[in-house]
Specification:
The complex is a heterodimer of chains A (177) and B (202).
Chain A (H helix, E strand, L loop, with lengths): L7 H45 L5 E5 L4 E6 L2 E12 L4 E8 L5 E8 L13 H4 L26 H22 L1
Chain B lengths: L1 H9 L14 H7 L3 H25 L8 H23 L1 H7 L3 H5 L2 H11 L4 H31 L1 E4 L2 E5 L14 H21 L1
Helix pairs in contact in B: 1-8, 3-4, 3-7, 3-8, 4-5, 4-7
The chains are: A alpha+beta (177), B mainly alpha (202).
Chain lengths: 177, 202
C-alpha cells in the first residue's frame, strides 16, 4: 500500500529517477534493435519487390533517382519507388511498381497506421489487385471517373493511397519523359 | 494459493475489465471489428499489463504517493515502446500483425487501472495472477464483441484468413453500421445491459 507522503525534494528526485531509467532503457532497447529493424525492413522491401515482380532476379537501388531498378535475364523490366501518403491515422508508405512504359505493375503497402478493421483493409490483396495494369489516367476512384473501386468505411485511407499513387506517377513521368 | 486463484479468476468474470469495471473501453471499441484484431489486441495488452503489474508491484513501496500516476504512466509508456521496438526487430511478422495495436495500448486505461487499483497495493505474485486474469477477461469480452460486430457487419466469420461461416442473405447486404464506431457503441451498450441484468437477477 502506498501511504507514505514525502517532501517535495524526494518526489522530484523520484520522478527524475524514473524518467532517467525510462530514457536509459529506451536508449538501450533502441541500440539493441536498430540494426535488426533496419534488416527486417530491408527483408520486407525485398519481399514486396518480389511480390510485384515475381520474375525479378536482381534489384539495384538507385540513390539519385531513389528507385529500385528491377532486372531479370539481364534486362531492365521495371522500377519500384516509394511514396508517402497521409492517411487517416498517419503516414502510409506505399511501394509503387511501374512497367517500363509507366503503366502500373501494382502497389504494396509497406507501413501504415490506419484503423484496424476499417482503414487497414488497404493492405488486403482484394484492394491491391485493383491497381494492377492500370494506366495513369485510370488510377482514381470510380466516383472520380477512375477504375478503382473504394472500400466501404475506409474512404479516407483509400483516397489517400489512390490520389498519392496517381500524383507520384504523374510527377515521375513529367520528370523523366 | 487460494488467494492467488481468487486473484486470477476475479478478472475473468466477477471483475471483468470491460463489462464490469468498464476499463479499456476505447481500445475495445476501436479494434473489435474482427476476431483476429481481438486476439492481437488481447495478446499485446496482456503482455504490457503483465510487465507493468510486475514492475509496479516491485517498486510500490518506494513510489511517493503524490506522483504515483505520472510514474505509472511513464512505466507503461516505456514498456509499450520497448515491446514495439523488440517486436519490430525480432519478430517482424508478429509486428506487422500487431503493430497497429501497440500505440493503442498506451491509452488503455485497463492497464493504468490495474496498476492503481491492484499492483500498487499487492505483492508480485498476486499482481501476476491479477494481470493474467484481467488479460483473459479482456480477451473473451473483446472476442464476444468482435464476434457480433464481424458477423453482422460483414455477414461472415473469418479467423486468420480461414472462412468459418457465412450467413446467407446477410453476406450480400451486410449491416455495415456494425463496423462503424456507432455500431460498436450499440453492441457494447447492449452487452453491458445484458450483464447488468444478469447481475441484478442473481
Amino acid at each position: 500500500m502506498i501511504k507514505r507522503s514525502r517532501g517535495s525534494f524526494t518526489i522530484l528526485f523520484f520522478l527524475t529517477l524514473i524518467v532517467f531509467l525510462s530514457v536509459v532503457s529506451l536508449f538501450l532497447t533502441d541500440d539493441l534493435t536498430e540494426e535488426r529493424i533496419a534488416f527486417a525492413r530491408q527483408a520486407a522491401i525485398k519481399r514486396m519487390l518480389t511480390a510485384l515482380f515475381p520474375e525479378m532476379e536482381i534489384y539495384d537501388y538507385d540513390d539519385q533517382l531513389r528507385v529500385y531498378k528491377i532486372f531479370a535475364t539481364g534486362k531492365w523490366i521495371g522500377q519500384v519507388f516509394m511514396v508517402r501518403a497521409s492517411g487517416y491515422g498517419g503516414p502510409i508508405d506505399i511501394m509503387v511498381g511501374l512497367e517500363p512504359d509507366y503503366s502500373l505493375r501494382g502497389i504494396r503497402i509497406l507501413s501504415h497506421r490506419e484503423t484496424p478493421g476499417l482503414g487497414d483493409r488497404i493492405t488486403e490483396a482484394a484492394f491491391l489487385d485493383r491497381f494492377v495494369g492500370l494506366t495513369v489516367q485510370q488510377i482514381a476512384l470510380t466516383r472520380d471517373g477512375g477504375k478503382i473501386e473504394g472500400i466501404t468505411a475506409a474512404t479516407i485511407s483509400v483516397r489517400a493511397v489512390v490520389d498519392k499513387v496517381r500524383e507520384a506517377i504523374i510527377a515521375k513521368i513529367d520528370k523523366e519523359k | 494459493m487460494r488467494c492467488l486463484n481468487k486473484d486470477f479468476s476475479a478478472g475473468i468474470i466477477r471483475f471483468n475489465p470491460i463489462f464490469i469495471l468498464l476499463l479499456g473501453l476505447c481500445p475495445a471499441l476501436a479494434v473489435s471489428t474482427s476476431l483476429d484484431n481481438a486476439i492481437g489486441m488481447t495478446a499485446a495488452a496482456t503482455f504490457v499489463l503483465l510487465g507493468s503489474n510486475i514492475i509496479i508491484a516491485v517498486i510500490r513501496q518506494y513510489v511517493p504517493k503524490q506522483v504515483r500516476i505520472p510514474v505509472f504512466i511513464v512505466i507503461i509508456a516505456t514498456l509499450v515502446t520497448i515491446v514495439d521496438l523488440l517486436l519490430q526487430g525480432f519478430a517482424p511478422a508478429l509486428s506487422a500483425a500487431l503493430g497497429i495495436f501497440i500505440p493503442l495500448i498506451v491509452v488503455n486505461c485497463m492497464i493504468l487501472g490495474r496498476a492503481e487499483a491492484f499492483a500498487s497495493k499487492q505483492g508480485v505474485s498476486r499482481s501476476i495472477m491479477d494481470a493474467l486474469g484481467v488479460g483473459i477477461g479482456f480477451g473473451w469480452a473483446l472476442a464476444l464483441i468482435s464476434l457480433i460486430r464481424q458477423l453482422l457487419g460483414t455477414g461472415s466469420l473469418s479467423f486468420f484468413g480461414q472462412q468459418l461461416l457465412t450467413i446467407p442473405g446477410l453476406v450480400e447486404e451486410p449491416a455495415i453500421i456494425f463496423l462503424f464506431p456507432m455500431g460498436a457503441f450499440f453492441v457494447v451498450g447492449l452487452l453491458l445491459a445484458l450483464f447488468k441484468w444478469l447481475e441484478a437477477k442473481k
